[in-house]
Records
---
Amino acid sequence: MVFDLPAESPTWPPVGSERLWAEKTDVPLQLAVRNTPFYVRGVANGDVIEVEPDDERREIVFVRLVSESGHSAVQVHVGDPRMLPSLEKSLARLEVSWETAHVDTYLAVDVHPRCDYASLRRQLLELREQGAIAVRESAISRRHRSQLPSFP
């Protein structure tokens, strides 16, 4: 299924759309997302979304979020590739999973519902303050937001 991406700047995102894996649910035109987006905002792994067919493009297109899964999605760009091994160790300790994009320094992080998001966020923000990474919290579930005293 495809998500059309609005331009946030002249160079971001680097693509006009992103395709995610999904599987059918019991409700027609509702799918469960089955991977973590690199560029899409507002959707995480396991979320249920409404879609519609685009006959002209011959694709299934995202319409809206129906329900959250409890997972969150965080997108991380590692500025210094030497930081990648330590970042991956930190992510593994917190029991989150991730994929890398076409460049190994851009990660789509799937934050499982059981993860202590406050700890993960603290570590990511410390690395961001050091200039080692850029972070975009693209879809933070209610469960994970509830772990934070204040969330933008």
---
Amino acid sequence: MTFSVLAVIVLCGMAGPVLSGLSRLTAPVVVGEILAGVIVGESGFKYLPATDPTVVFLSAVGFAMLMFVVGTHLPLRDTRLRAALTIGVTGGVLSFVLAAPVGYALSRISGVGHPAIFLLLLAASSSAVVMPIVQEKGLTGDKVLATTAWVAIVDIATIVALPLAVTPGKAPKIAAGGVAVAAVAVAMFWVAHKLRRWKPLEQLRDYSRTRGWAFDLRLSMLVLFSLAALASKFGTSTLIAGFAAGMIVALAGEPKRMTTQLIGLAEGFFVPFFFVALGAKLDFRSLVSSPSDLELVVLLAVAIIACHLVVAVVLRLPWPSGLLASAELGLPAGVVSLGLSQRIISAGNGAAIIAAAMVSLGASSLGAILLARIPATPAGPELPEPPAHA
């Protein structure tokens, strides 16, 4: 890792806003960043060393911060969230119920095997993609809130279940890690609530406001990285740690100045770093030489979109909500990473899974465009103004 490589990564990160801002299709910011990473990574010029330990670690930090930012922008203090969560949980259950037989059939047809992995791929949604799209399009209303709740629930559930599906021998340790992260997050929120009016802390925050110490941001980063360290110790995804830390801040109520600081820190560097590094890992050259893997791309993409459309219709949500919720990113990347390391999928299978995920991103963007043409429910809460990714 050198400063020249770092400069290239930052330059690639700028491709996201440029493509999103200049494209008539208003592509999600993440698309430009991933494509730029593909160009400089394994599928292109091979300039970016995606396996470099420093790149891998900074990418993990970017993913954790992305989930943190998404968590801070969930409207957890809104009184209508309980009803949205009810629909979200129902959608999550339906997603798994529908994905089970379809995933089994797809594993048999494709010849890849491992139906548990296909079950997760078909049920999953990506908050890291859906929330930015919702916020970029300015989508509001109860139906949108219910859709994002559904997405968040299946996102967390599938990420938690992924290590269990790939390495079932470590299931007890991974499950214990999820419980530990949740318990510590609840304890941290309780402490933050109790100390909120503590005078020495209030004085420090006043000094921070007048002297530019960014004290609230430092506290938030301490919570995030502490939970991420705990998750890593148990082999649990940092997605859970990021969400949990973000939810603590959302429930406590974040000051506007911290929001500005967070946008600068996360959106200016770490989050684009994650998406560029992800694109650099992908090798699409092996996909072209295998007709069966190309067939897998089509089958998997169609199955992902179809399953989400069916769930949306059953939940009585607008059918474009199913397209919006079909976006996948983190889980396919995890499936490929773990699957290749455990030698349960081939390089061509991995490229096919990522290619299908890219198709789902386009479907999600189309769903947002169609939803924007539907008048929002007047009673629905408005989502807060977001940064580009979350």
